[in-house]
Design goal:
Order of helices and strands: HHHHHHHHHHHHH
Strand content: under 5%
Number of strands: 0
Shape: globular
Number of helices: 13
Largest sheet: none
Radius of gyration: 19 Å
Oligomer: single chain
Helix content: over 70%
């Protein structure tokens, strides 16, 4: 089995495992009695602490194998949701849960990106398409599975599946051929274009939108975790269709800003609808346009304009986590309405479409 196939299998299983519960995290907190502001604080700490976790993970990855960090990450990730299921409602528990989930999540993200950057060839369009396909298939399955199991069997069954499947996901990469670079990290960012950094910054509004979206659906559409799972499964179906049938037939460089404008219009339309049935139709359209956006952003991340993988990851993850945390803190102190938060996020997404970015060719599935 090639490195690429091993990595794709890892992405498929690990994404399935982690999305079973992750998309419902904010809703579970809301059901337990935490306010919207409390949940924003949770996200702010989650992302803010992620800066430290990413840096420590990357340095540790140079001492011990990345797969060992992923094993530890899976165990901490599972324990974080166990803590969520048993904790009482107070600020201290919310902070502890945020930190646990941050460690479990960002050790995984740092190592996942490191492995991808290590094995992807310079001309990596087809490989990126394959990674996205594996991710979206996993999201389709995990979104509905997570909602169904949590609703019908309880959180403990869900946690068991998450931990076991997370550990199973490590098996494909045990023999992954990755050079463990132990040279001193070179913090040289001259080759990274400013427009790429600008895109990184405004792209985070889309991440926050998707983080808040389950809460919006729960409050304004239907107070049912299984419904949120179905909504996200439809997003995943549309994503696979886009990557497989559409992305290879269009030049995203030419149509991205137009598609992004249409994406923002669909999002505005969605947050003004309260019909749960119509929202499921919107989910399909949103899925198509979200993945058009993510194909560009993924290519932006994995483009080979860096000199050192570790320093590049430290920079990118620092930007991602810092911007996300600042957005959530701004909402925490100044905004109380979920819809207004989503409108502001849409504004950031819109601006990102006009940020000049490097994208030279079509992606392939």
């Amino acid at each position: 089995m090639t490195n690429g196939k091993r990595y794709n299998l890892f992405i498929l299983i690990s994404t399935l495992a982690r999305n079973i519960v992750e998309i419902f995290s904010s809703v579970i907190l809301y059901e337990k009695g935490y306010s919207v502001k409390d949940i924003l604080l949770f996200f702010a700490i989650l992302y803010g602490f992620g800066i430290v976790v990413n840096i420590v993970s990357i340095y540790l990855g140079r001492i011990i194998k990345q797969k060992n960090i992923l094993i530890i990450s899976s165990l901490i990730y599972g324990y974080a949701f166990y803590y969520l299921s048993t904790m009482s409602i107070n600020l201290t528990n919310l902070v502890i849960y945020s930190i646990l989930l941050s460690i479990g999540s960002y050790t995984y993200h740092a190592m996942r990106h490191y492995l991808a950057l290590s094995i992807l060839p310079k001309d990596n369009k087809k490989e990126i398409g394959s990674i996205l396909i594996c991710s979206y298939i996993a999201i389709i399955v995990s979104s509905y599975l997570g909602g169904y199991i949590t609703n019908n069997l309880g959180i403990m069954w869900t946690l068991g599946i998450v931990i076991i499947s997370s550990l199973i996901s490590i098996i494909p990469i045990i023999k992954l051929e990755v050079k463990n670079d132990k040279k001193k990290i070179k913090y040289d960012y001259k080759g990274i274009k400013k427009n790429k950094i600008a895109f990184f910054i405004f792209e985070q509004f889309k991440v926050i939108f998707l983080s808040i979206q389950p809460l919006f659906l729960y409050i304004y559409a239907k107070s049912d975790i299984e419904y949120i799972g179905i909504f996200n499964a439809l997003l995943g179906v549309a994503s696979v269709l886009f990557v497989y049938f559409i992305s290879r037939k269009v030049n995203l460089k030419k149509i991205f800003w137009i598609g992004n404008l249409l994406f923002c219009l669909v999002l505005i339309f969605k947050i003004n609808i309260t019909s749960s049935s119509i929202l499921l139709i919107i989910a399909f359209l949103e899925g198509l346009l979200t993945k058009m956006y993510e194909m560009v952003s993924t290519t932006n991340i994995y483009s080979k304009d860096y000199k050192d993988i570790s320093s590049y990851l430290i920079l990118t993850e620092f930007i991602f986590c810092l911007v996300r945390s600042l957005i959530c803190l701004f909402f925490y102190f100044f905004i109380s309405d979920v819809k207004l938060m989503l409108y502001i996020c849409i504004g950031g997404i819109l601006i990102s479409g006009f940020v000049r970015y490097e994208y030279k060719d079509r992606l392939e599935y």
